[in-house]
Write a structure and sequence with these properties.
By secondary structure, this protein is α/β, with parallel strands linked by helices. About 25% of the residues lie in helices and about 35% in strands. The chain has a single domain, classed as Purple Acid Phosphatase, chain A, domain 2 (4-Layer Sandwich), CATH 3.60.21.10. The strands form 3 sheets. It has a 6-stranded mixed β-sheet with strand order 3-2-1-12-13-14. It has a 6-stranded mixed β-sheet with strand order 4-5-7-9-11-10.
Length: about 240
């Protein structure tokens, strides 16, 4: 059994401090083999928000895979052109396309937010090739996970992403961005979208994160919701691998 914690849309700078503290405790209690954060760790890519984000990420269970979200680029600033990813690289990770390997699992992170797009994302041919190349070298029995900020349906280049995911035999694709939790199988891959973890920007669904458990036959997604005094399990969705 593998356990993966999937957190998205912290939006530090527009967050609830009590929820941040209880989120760290709840994720830690799950003892995941990997913690995946699918972007928007900050609200407006300000230095003080990245400092807060670094503190939070350091307290989450390791190893950690973090990808860039649209809110992690400066919005209206010369930095958008001159140094779009600089603060994210400085405070979060210098690798915008990270790969993490743990026993039984290989995970690939993709940066789906080009600096010239304001909100919607894009996947390039090079990124699609990175999926097939990385998993081509993975152990046959490994769970294969792809993480990015934008769900496939909102991406330019979604056709090449889906083709690469199918070719590489990806089991699990995790994303954020919409603030609305979702789980659905797509052509043999289970697509899991996380809601808002700690921000006030919840789109009416409540603050949540995903606890994902994987065995040889089933991927089980437990949506964990903030209650004001802690976290409780909401929907539990089981999908065959």
């Amino acid at each position: 059994m593998l356990t993966v914690a999937h957190v998205s849309d912290l939006h530090l700078g527009a967050h609830d401090p009590d929820t941040v503290r209880s989120l760290i405790a709840d994720v830690t209690a799950a003892r995941p083999v990997l913690t995946v954060v699918t972007g928007d760790v900050t609200m407006r890519a300000r230095v003080r928000e990245f400092r807060q984000a670094r503190t939070v990420l350091d307290r989450l269970p390791q190893p950690l895979l973090v990808v860039l979200g649209n809110h992690d680029l400066p919005l209206i600033s010369p930095l958008r052109v001159l140094w779009p990813y600089g603060r994210f690289r400085t405070w979060i990770t210098s690798d915008l396309q990270p790969v993490v390997r743990v026993p039984g699992l290989t995970a690939v992170g993709l940066s789906s937010m080009p600096r010239w797009r304001w909100k919607d994302g894009r996947i390039t041919r090079r990124q699609a090739a990175r999926i097939t190349g990385t998993f081509g070298a993975a152990a046959e029995q490994d769970l294969r996970l792809v993480a990015l900020h934008h769900p496939p349906g909102s991406l330019a280049g979604r056709g090449r992403l889906r083709e690469a995911v199918r070719e590489a035999g990806v089991h699990l694709l995790v994303a954020g961005h919409t603030h609305i939790p979702d789980v659905r199988p797509e052509h043999g891959t289970v697509v899991v979208v996380a809601g808002t973890a700690t921000s006030h920007r919840t789109r009416g669904t409540g603050q949540s994160w995903n606890l994902i458990r994987i065995n040889s036959t089933t991927i089980t997604v437990c949506e964990r919701y903030a209650t004001g005094t802690g976290w409780s399990t909401g929907r539990v969705i089981k999908v065959s691998r």
